[in-house]
Design a protein that fits this description.
elongated; 173 residues; six-stranded mixed sheet
Length: 173
């Protein structure tokens, strides 16, 4: 008693190749230069165990972590591979990972406080986000200086003030 009990002849099939791109879906995406402290931040605020090392491009694939806030609130944070100048053109791990930022509701931009030019580092990443397109530069951005424990308090506050003036945003330490 199979149904239907009639059949129609099929049509000729179409052969071809399709490229599928999987994009990570997260509430917050961590962006910044390689070794800015993104993986360490993720490992501290969530139960994620990303690879952490002191060489560039330790993170080669996006890592996800769930941040729990109390019993009933949580959000997903994505540790994305570090960006460098020219990433929107494919330099470094480049545009392969800028696409993941498209799916994030907000960006947590980490700037390494131990480097000399924090404003230049901030502006380079902002330029890459804008040059990639897809309105990445319009996403809500939280700006933070990482590795501040490696600096004297006065130096960290000075870099914070420089970055706040250049970005027009509040900078977290």
């Amino acid at each position: 008693n199979q149904s239907p009990d009639y059949a129609q002849p099929g049509e000729a099939g179409v052969e071809g190749w399709k490229v599928l791109e999987l994009k990570v879906l997260a509430d917050v995406g961590l962006v910044g230069f390689p070794n800015a402290g993104k993986s360490t931040f993720l490992s501290v605020v969530s139960r994620a165990k990303p690879k952490i090392a002191d060489y560039p491009f330790t993170t080669t694939i996006p890592q996800l972590g769930v941040v729990r806030m109390g019993h009933d609130r949580e959000f997903v944070i994505a540790d994305l591979p570090g960006l460098i100048e020219g990433a929107h053109e494919g330099v470094g791990l480049g545009d392969r990972f800028l696409g993941h930022v498209e799916r994030c509701k907000a960006i947590l931009h980490l700037v390494d406080a131990t480097q000399e030019d924090v404003v230049g580092a901030y502006q380079t990443i902002r330029h890459e986000l804008k040059s990639y397109g897809h309105n990445l530069d319009q996403k809500r951005e939280i700006l933070a200086l990482s590795k501040c424990d490696s600096l004297m308090e006065e130096e960290a506050l000075e870099k914070k003030a420089e970055l706040e003036q250049a970005s027009g945003n509040t900078v977290m330490l």
